[in-house]
Amino acid sequence: MKLAMIGFGQAGGKILDRFLEYDQRTGSEIVRAAVAVNSAKADLMGLKNIPEENRVLIGQARVKGHGVGADNELGAEIAEEDIDEVQGAIDSIPVHEVDAFLVIAGLGGGTGSGGAPVLSKHLKRIYTEPVYGLGVLPSQDEGGIYTLNAARSFQTFVREVDNLMVFDNDAWRKTGESMEGGYSEINEEIVKRFGILFGAGEIEPGGEVGESVVDSSEIINTLSGGGVSTVGYAAEEVSREKKGLLSRFTGDDDGADDGMDAANTTNRITSLVRKAALGRLTLPCEIDGAERALLVMSGPPKYLNRKGIERGRKWLEEQTGSMEVRGGDYPVSESGFVASVILLSGVTNVPRIKELQQVAIEAQDNIDDIRQQSEENLHRLVEDDEDELEPLF
User: Fold this and answer.
1) Residue 28 has pLDDT above 90, yes or no
2) Binding residues
């Protein structure tokens, strides 16, 4: 699937930068065009893989290149004001060569949280290609203002895109991990999952063609209908050693017949499908009730088979209750892993979102109380008790 990606804000820019690095490393070429947008000049300068001409600084008239300070209302305002500058960079994108737009943003900050929904609305008004969002939720320990930003941005973002894919930092941060190190690892997890998903169907010249190829139309159909999506992932390393743990799976056993190899391959694929669906999703949720699903099995061709994928697809149908479950393979000859990626679209049983909204409401009430108390305290400090002083004007 060929994508025009726009990274909005600090987190969005860093994830987009990592997507480009992934493209270069794997040769997947899913990023057809890349644009980074930010109100903080320093964040744009820190990017490594995005061409300088595709880095757009917005809000200079109001924030002078210093960012919006986690004020996502201001982030939305400057995105509206400077949308023509962003469009100027998007105009260079060969839209006829892309299957969709992907707007990437962290939802807890100011620029991306406020600006990503504004840009998505603008893109949908102009282009016929689907516009998807990839939103990253902040972890709970980042503070109330970031949770409030995320809840408000989520509510807006999901309405302005054709589908909002979500990654929840709270489910992925490790205890005691540094902020910088934690986010670097999280960004790698994001790119790995979505890289395999969007890479499906993009076969290099002379490359392997799967038995049941997943192409961009199946991804688009799975994401159609709007709503919220989550992605599951599970992988096992391919063992080259004979009589090793995966020897039967890889067909390396001396004297093992083809029937036994096929059965073991099928069972291993089914196991990976279950691990991907029931393990740690990008947005934790109950998978029953998901409206649509897509299964992609990736790895060396000889470790994939149609029967295993079909069995995994039917299991997903049973677990989700959906009749719209697609599946196929994405052969990667040089891969050292067999991986299962599952896209669950239209999920609604998501306790984390309800929890986020409740914490945001409490944070909003606390902020209002603090502001009122602050005004009262300032009044007591400034005004003299007898009201004998007169201000200058």
Assistant:
1) no
2) 10-14, 110-112, 142, 169, 187
